[in-house]
Design brief:
Blueprint (H helix, E strand, L loop, with lengths): L1 H6 L2 H14 L4 H25 L3 H8 L3 H37 L6 H18 L2 H24 L5 H6 L10 H11 L2 H11 L7 H31 L10 H13 L1 H34 L5 H24 L4 H28 L1 H4 L6 H25 L5
Helix pairs in contact: 2-9, 2-11, 3-9, 3-10, 3-11, 3-15, 4-5, 5-6, 5-13, 5-14, 5-15, 6-13, 6-14, 7-11, 7-13, 9-15, 9-17, 10-13, 12-13, 13-14, 15-17
Length: about 400
């Protein structure tokens, strides 16, 4: 559930709502691909962690024998997590604050709501125990699941058009949004978070690995279905009058127009659950990875200090940007597209480690896993390359 809590954040809600409002059901296929890709990569990350007894960053850097290659890998991992997650955190905190406003706290200044959200997240990271935090995250995931699925249940949906959206297509000007949908689902930091959190929960044997795969498949499928529900909500309400304030406000207004204030409140609760769960998991993932990379193996106290210091730094940076009222919507979409560009590189690192018999022995990737992982890397790389070429004017 940590994985679901991490990738269903305000960024996901924003990207999915924007996709539904702007392109109807046409980009649902991107979420189907992203959900399958996430399940494949997360299962690999969990297997690497369980078999090697290391976090994913540790396993990748340990497998790189060349010091220069190790530095390049470390830089890419740091760039995709520390920098990206700080940008995401601003969106997580702003999204939680937006949900609180939609819930009825209109009188409170957005900066105060953002500051309160950031402070609460910092306190929970500072004093919270892992088991307690995990239970809180599961509760938040269940709350947003009920909210978004409940919202979908009362909307009139054209299910034939939904089925048509499962066929790959790219309407005009939709490539950026399609990559953002993939980038908000196949989240690089989730690979590292999953690897860090799964150790000790499953045995490093065939039975434990099978249980881990089932756990991953169920959680990722739930997250993918929630993302699709938000796209469908945006598409099904797109013809109604919009507020013009942004996709989150637009969906809230349209739901209120259709079903009254209760529907707006349900959507707000889902957004709060999405925002606050991600406001906890993004700093946790960054803290885990930096502690693995520079914390050493012989001093648990030093690793704990690096972990908490890094996590609190991510919360602080995100809170500052949120308090300064930096508009998170474009920032989130750009960060997700950047994630989509970095993803093939990090996925290739993961695929390389998961296929190494020197690291995983009998549990290394077989032919089917290698083919599936390679397909994910190639599709993500192709979409990212096309975006770069279009930005440079080299692709129509």
């Amino acid at each position: 559930m940590l994985v679901t809590a991490a990738f269903i954040g305000p960024g996901t809600v924003t990207a999915c709502a924007s996709a539904g409002i702007g392109f109807g059901y046409a980009l649902l296929w991107a979420l189907v691909f992203a959900t399958l890709a996430t399940a494949i990569l997360q299962a690999m990350a969990a297997r690497v962690a369980l078999v090697t007894g290391q976090g994913l960053a540790e396993a990748i850097l340990s497998a790189a024998g060349n010091p220069a290659l190790r530095w390049v890998m470390a830089a890419l991992i740091f760039a995709s997590l520390a920098i990206g997650n700080s940008a995401y955190q601003a969106g997580n905190i702003s999204g939680t604050a937006a949900g609180l406003k939609l819930l009825g706290l209109h009188a409170a200044h957005p900066a105060l709501l953002a500051l309160a959200t950031g402070t609460l997240a910092a306190m929970m990271i500072l004093i919270g125990k892992p088991a307690w935090l995990e239970k809180l995250l599961i509760a938040l995931v269940l709350a947003m699941s009920l909210a978004f699925v409940g919202g979908l249940a009362v909307i009139e949906v054209d299910w034939l058009r939904v089925a048509g959206g499962l066929l790959p297509q790219l309407p005009a000007d939709s490539l950026f949004t399609a990559i953002a949908l993939i980038g908000t689902t196949v989240v690089p930091y989730n690979l590292f978070l999953h690897a860090a959190s799964v150790r000790g929960k499953f045995a490093a044997d065939a039975e434990g690995l099978a249980a881990s795969r089932l756990d991953t498949a169920l959680s990722v499928t739930l997250g993918g279905l929630l993302s699709m529900a938000i796209v469908i909500m945006g598409a099904a309400t797109a013809k109604l009058t919009a507020s013009g304030a942004g996709p989150l406000d637009d969906i809230a207004l349209r739901l209120e127009t259709l079903f009254g204030g209760a529907a707006r409140s349900v959507f707000a609760l889902g957004l709060i659950g999405a925002g606050f769960s991600s406001a906890l998991t993004a700093p946790l993932a960054t803290g885990y990875v930096l502690a693995e990379m520079i914390g050493g193996t012989g001093d648990p106290d030093r690793r704990a200090r690096i972990f908490k210091g890094t996590a609190l730094a991510v919360v602080t940076i995100g809170t500052v940007f949120a308090v300064l009222s930096v508009n998170p919507v474009q920032l989130i979409l750009i960060a997700q597209s950047a994630n989509g560009l970095l993803l093939p590189i990090l996925a290739a690192f993961l695929l390389w480690v998961a296929a190494r018999k020197a690291s995983l022995g009998e549990f290394a990737n077989g032919p089917i896993a290698n083919i599936a992982g390679t397909a994910v890397v190639l599709v993500c790389a192709g979409l990212g390359a096309r975006l770069i070429l279009r930005s440079a004017g080299l692709w129509p």
